[in-house]
Amino acid sequence: MSTVRVGTRGSLLSRRQTEVVLAVLRGLHPGLQFEVVVIQTRGDRWLGPLVHPSGPGLFVAELERALREGSIDLAVHSLKDLPTDPTPGLVVAAIPPREDPRDALVANVPSLAHLPPGARVGTSSPRRAAQLRIYRKDLEVVPLRGNVDTRIRKVRAGEVDAAILAVAGLVRGGWEQEVAERLDPEVMLPAPGQGAIALQVREDDLRVRALVESLDDPLTRAAVSAERAFLRGLGGGCTIPAAALATWEAGNILRLRGLVAAPDGSWAVRVERAGPVAAAEEMGREAAEAVCGHLPTLAS
Hey, which end of the chain has fewer CB within 10 Å, N or C? Predict the structure, then answer.
């Protein structure tokens, strides 16, 4: 095997993210060639809100199909795009060290608190919209789709006063200078897995698995496992605003914070768990159960 075909979405961010991974792989395996294969997904064609009627997998289904069919040998995903249930025949062989998982404010003011009443903030994420409405009920949350560079241009052009984007995407894409504020998770809890990259291969392709497994970061994997177990416990999809972040504390203790909120920001349930790395997924499941126990009362 002298060439490894690497599948990615066609957006500028996706391609830059893939190049970050390939730079490491080329250094580790100088005798191999890596061919980038760009694949358009439903998410690239979908112009509606980020809750697609067909459910999760909006940005990954075509990549997974190409992987199963053998058109590519490795798929590079933003981990938060992957459904929480594993795809039969495929495995996430590596999750490299995570970039900053927080969300960022892109605006011409220094912080979310400095936006004037009635300011128009763009996002098509139900999670971000709900938390914006909780923190600042006076803001007008408006839909904002497009690639990262497109959304940045719309802020610059004054189509919206601000936008909320992932810090990781801005950093990896070369737009870090556009960050006005890195939002505190107490204000804007990120999506489960945000900032992490997933390297997915065929389960039975032992050669490619061996190539990429050295990129796996156990601490990142444990953290995102807790977050994704929380999301899976809620039903696994993105039809309700849900957020989670696991961080490491002294003594190798993992602290998980989770949230579920009404789309209009009228209520939110927050939960927190802490424990050792071995209990990462269990913490996520327990946090989801705790949240679900409160939802009927709050929703009624």
Answer: C
Mean of per-residue pLDDT scores for the chain: 91
DSSP 244: E
pTM for this one? 0.90
**What is the model's pLDDT at position 97?**
97
Where does a domain end: 182, 208, 240?
Answer: 182
The number of domains in the chain is 3
Which residue has 């009927």 as its token pair?
296
Q: What is the mean pLDDT of residues 168-176?
A: 94
- Other beta carbons within 10 angstroms of residue 33's beta carbon come to 11
Contact 64, 202 (CB under 8 A): no
Task: Give dist(CA 68, CA 59) in Å, integer.
Answer: 16
Domain of residue 249, residue span: 225-299
- Asked if residues 56 and 232 have their Cβ atoms less than 8 Å apart, the reply is no
Tell me if residue 204 is catalytic.
Answer: no
Number of helical (H) and strand (E) elements in the chain, helices listed first: 9, 13
Note the pLDDT tens digit of each residue in 207-260. Answer: 999 999 999 999 999 999 999 999 999 985 546 899 999 999 987 899 999 999
CA dist., res. 126 & res. 165, Å (int): 13
CA-based nearest residue to 18, from 43, 40, 38: 38
What CA–CA distance (Å, rounded) separates 1 from 56? 33
Please report the pLDDT score of residue 299 as a whole number: 44
The dihedral sign for the CA sequence 164, 169, 172, 173? negative
Asked if 106 contacts 115 with a C-beta cutoff of 8 angstroms, the reply is no
